[in-house]
Specification:
Helix content is about 70%, strand content about 5%. With about 350 residues, the protein is mainly alpha-helical. The protein has 2 domains: about 35-180, Four Helix Bundle (Hemerythrin (Met), subunit A) (Up-down Bundle); about 185-330, de novo design (two linked rop proteins). The protein has a 3-stranded antiparallel beta sheet, with no helix packed on it. α4 (about 90-115) packs antiparallel against α5. It is globular, with a radius of gyration of 24 Å.
Length: about 350
């Protein structure tokens, strides 16, 4: 193929190591440069698990309309350390705060540990970012109480919480034995839009859906934008997963998250339908949240968090294993005029 500026050279086949982009060079040298730290990895797994439990606890608070059951912050009924009577909505809100404090403590340990033990500079910064996110999440949680559950702040509280969860899951991936020790199998992506673009589009669509759903739950928006955007999310995520499975099924690091994302998408759509029926159709006008509404909504939030985290992992693995092939024009030799 040629253009006005000369022939196009396609890098469809793996080039020599010297021609690799710098991030991929660093990946190829990872097995030599970075030793696997089993203790750090397992602590990161524990922190991610505790964070997922915190998301469920937060969903229980919202689903039971218990956000103002403890009316002050950072104290609980005027005390920083006394446990109040865990009755009614207090048991949901105060338990949520206890788990949040525990996750914050774990994150402090994780950030310090990563800063001292991780040889990769960007991992040190990722630990600091996780700590910053959990601090911001705590402040947003306090503001939701102090300002009596404003929908915008409450929705940002939900979004930052799931961002923090995705960060802990990414740390689990980056500290894992496979990431540290394996030499990535690279297959170049020559299609348009690239799979990397599709994974980033999937994450964006999920964040929009997360914010719309949070605004609906916090009574700041009607239900229909969330339901309408669900069709967009389903299309984009299905397109991404099918592209990954049809083109790169031999790469296990891509195949696994793609299958998981597709499975979670189906489960999430089913849970969304049940939650809609329980909250909007059956539970409309109920004096207090009923058990089917609470269970379906909490499950919907939990699976949504897993779906977003899986999309992030897929994007990371695609960036690592399926980089975008590029083409660049090679100037043709200049022709000097020759006298006739």
């Amino acid at each position: 193929m040629t253009t006005e500026s000369g022939p196009l050279v396609s890098f469809g086949a793996p080039p020599s190591p010297a021609a690799l982009p710098q991030p991929l060079k660093e990946s190829l040298l990872k097995a030599v440069a970075t030793p696997y730290n089993s203790a750090l990895h397992h602590f990161a797994v524990f922190t991610a698990g505790a964070t997922f439990l915190l998301i469920i606890a937060g969903a229980l608070v919202t689903s039971n309309d218990a956000g103002l059951s403890v009316p002050d912050w950072p104290t609980s009924f005027g005390s920083l350390y006394k446990i109040p009577r865990l009755v009614g909505g207090v048991k949901f809100e105060h338990t949520h705060r206890i788990i949040a404090q525990f996750v914050g403590f774990l994150t402090i340990i994780l950030a310090i540990w990563m800063w001292r033990a991780e040889p990769r500079r960007w991992m040190k910064h990722l630990g600091v970012a996780a700590l910053g996110l959990v601090i911001a999440q705590g402040i947003l949680g306090g503001l939701t109480v102090l300002f009596y559950l404003p929908p915008a702040i409450s929705s940002f509280h939900a979004a930052v919480g799931q961002t923090f969860f995705c960060t802990t899951v990414a740390i689990v991936l980056f500290t894992g034995r496979r990431w540290v020790e394996e030499v990535p199998r690279i297959q170049w992506d020559t299609r348009s839009p690239s799979l990397v673009t599709l994974t980033l589009l999937s994450i964006f669509a999920l964040y929009v859906q997360l914010f719309l759903g949070a605004m609906f739950r916090h009574k700041g928006m009607s239900w229909w934008p969330h339901v309408a955007n669900a069709a967009v999310v389903a299309f984009v995520l299905a397109w991404t997963a099918i592209r990954a499975l049809s083109q790169y099924s031999k790469i296990e690091a891509v195949r696994g998250p793609a299958i998981t994302m597709l499975s979670l998408l189906i489960a999430q759509l089913c849970l969304g339908f049940v939650a809609f029926e329980a909250r909007v159709v059956w539970g409309h006008g109920a004096a207090q949240p009923e058990l089917p509404m609470v269970i379906s909504t909490v499950a919907h939030v939990a699976v949504g968090a897993l779906l977003l985290a899986t999309a992030v992992i897929l994007a990371i693995q695609v960036w690592r294993h399926v980089p975008v092939a590029f083409e660049e024009p090679v100037p043709s030799p200049e022709r000097k005029p020759v006298a006739a």
